[in-house]
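By convention, each integer encodes one residue's backbone shape. The lines below illustrate.
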Amino acid sequence: MPLVTPLSPDHDKDTQELAKFFNETLGFCPNSVLTMQHRPAISKAFINLNKAVMENQGSVTSSLKRMIAWVSSNATGCRYCQAHAIRAAERYGAEQEQLDNIWEYKTHPAFSDAERAALDFSLAASLVPNAVDEKIKSELYKYWNEGEIVEMLGVISLFGYLNRWNDSMGTTLEEGAIESGNQYLGKTGWEIGKHK
């Protein structure tokens, strides 16, 4: 059981309209958003922030943003967000070989050096204490400009919020996200955990 019961998708009409965004990204409105509706100002602000963060302004592709989200969620241990991030990466065109080998991004040939720098940044920025250092910065600047780095940190920070929200809430994982989690992450031990 989640900490707080999600409300129906039509509870708040403004949230319902904004949440159409998730039909593209995930194929459904996340239970996390349905829970946020207990305070509609939070659900609406969250959806607008999500849309702004995930919008492409440079070379950080939609699929890479979702892989950045996955690395961040993996670092914090939120299984709900891991499943959502890998599902969204799949829906936004991540290469099959990347999806199948996301756990090995540091060494697998499906990932470019630029992608590795972005994913290493995600890992370092998601740890407590924070591990972003001169080496991480130096690698980032080999491949990415300041605007793109801001986009990446926007994703990492957004998922920091989501990881805490969903892990603390014990948000129930939706069927489509369970399928993606099992398909791409199950081989290395991913499971639903508290998100049943």
The radius of gyration is 16 Å.
